[in-house]
Amino acid sequence: MDAVFCFSCRHFQTDSGVEDSFRKGLSDWKKLSSKLEKHAHSQAHLNCMVKWDNYKIAQHLTTRLGLWKQ
Can you give the pTM of this predicted structure? Predict the structure, then answer.
């Protein structure tokens, strides 16, 4: 498949009603720049980025706690 995906939205989006072209893959190369710009500033994408950051923090803490208990 020749398409662009958004990692955070693909893995952390939970709102089914939100526009999801970057979850399913966007292959409209002529409009990619404007769609990327719009997507990067969308509230849905920003929410997914927060969820991804929280996930990474939780993973780090879990790893650190696991090492501490040994």
Answer: 0.79
